[in-house]
């Protein structure tokens, strides 16, 4: 009898050990968004920020993860996604918030972060609006080690850009001076390798994962995100985007077919026909009233061509809009672009996000 009880006890211990072991195996593990530091290899058992580099922690995907298997849950989360680039497929990470009252008729918004690539912070900034207006919010992160200035800010239209070698910070300011005479790059003519089509892919994946009936999405970007989105409207005019809010860009690619990239469209596949389509988009040049000469936040590029657009972001936004409108008028094109200045706000993504939520979902078109 004693032997039997000992054997039974061992079975029970073994059972619970296996159960606890399985539970441990089932716990989601996290890693930081790649930052090219040693912490890329560390594994965490919780969400949040990496204690070493402050990048967002994302779930480690199963080796057989496929976007077709994606499911989104109520509340906040994230998922990996592979996108095309000129060299090879690369991973991005999409942070999302699904409101508690989400249903198939809910709106969808994509939010593009600035140069900090902090899609988690931008997502968090939109949670209140997500719940109030019943919006599914999607905010991608393009890790900086694998998506440099040319692949992120410029959307991958250029590659091998030497901007880091010819840009010099102006001491004591937020300005960076660019020596345009030394500028070098290669164009990427194949649009499959630009990031602009990623927006539709992110939207399509979320629609499939949630059973959404949405056919279009709104998109908002601030600073570097604003740079991406005005180029998105020009280089990818037939996207599924509805309203495109390009906020507080540092400088612009003008719809100028004579001037070369990256301040114009020369050497690119864009032509008058595609510009006519671009002008039909509901693009809003979304500017902070105080993002002017007194603003010290963000980074402002200085160069002879950039300075022709103005000496600060507010001036440059007005210049871009007015240049585009004049060109559209000369082409007798249907010009749907708008300009909106947010009073009392500078280069502040949280306040610009709040203003964008008000503009999109309280004021209407």
UniProtKB/TrEMBL annotation:
This protein's name: Heavy metal binding domain-containing protein
Organism: [Muricauda] lutisoli
Residue span(s) of domain Heavy metal binding: 39-59
Source species, domain of life: Bacteria
SUPFAM superfamilies linked: alpha/beta-Hydrolases
